[in-house]
Amino acid sequence: MTNMTTHASETSPADTLAPIFKASGDPLRLEILRVLRRDTFGVLELSQLFDMRQSGMSHHLKVMHKAGLLEPQREGNAIFYRRPLHLESDKLTDRTIRQIFETVDQLPLPLHLEQKIEAIRNQRADQSQAFFARYAEQFREQQELIAAFELYAEPVAELLRKRSGKHEWHSALEIGPGEGGFLPVLSQLCGNVVALDNSRDMLAKATRTCIEERLNNVDLIEGVTDTLLARGDAFDLVVANMVLHHVPSPADIFLDAAALMNSGGCLVISDLCSHDQDWAKENCGDLWLGFEPEELTAWAADAGLTAGEQLFIGLRNGFQMQVREFWKLASQN
Residues in domain HTH arsR-type (predicted)? Predict the structure, then answer.
């Protein structure tokens, strides 16, 4: 009798896999996994994408989360959902989940979903642009509520100077130059520099910096990365300082940077680590409350980039900064 009870209480591998396959055995849930390949969406946004009530979407997300297919990400008072960051390679359930992701990622998104995702990204972009238009004259003061410019600019500059001895950089792109404070560094390191920003007000401030610093090799362009991709531009170095938490889809920055980089090129990013200080959204125009280092690594890998050196800097008010470099291997096209 004892042996029978013990045997009945044992959990077989099939028992651990059943919830995963049950949770993923629904066309809608597979579509949810598909749209969360690189993006992070809240319950309301997902309800908007799939034309269903919030209560119904919440039920699906709860089932998927319980099965390990999704994980919640708190952004201040809101809950967003993403695919799990930590999947162990030797664990049966994690291998199964990863195989499900790989399979659904082979399915193209329906056009109507792509259009709705683009609409959500545009809403986020409009929110960010409105903030910078409203506070362009107080940009430095707003940013320094979190981190003084020098606290992240100097480590990034030091990293680039160290790398420039071994790598010949002819052209550089800075995404979101702000007031242009980092452009003198890039101007010294590279013969040609492009500064790209979707805020006309911030570009005007960056232009003044270029005039004052006599930076004659900097081209300032109003637009987004798609603007440069359409022109066919290519760079040896791409830099994004404190930009990711302002953009609608941070993962796309990695994809676009990789597409804009020459073989052997380098992407350097400085940004906040994940935090819970919701006031940054209203006071600093942040769309995202920082990022887990594993998120950046995963997005870079998905874009075909290899992670390099990383540096973590403690800031006041409990914030932490991460400086990361990613490389496009010379063998890549």
Answer: 9-104
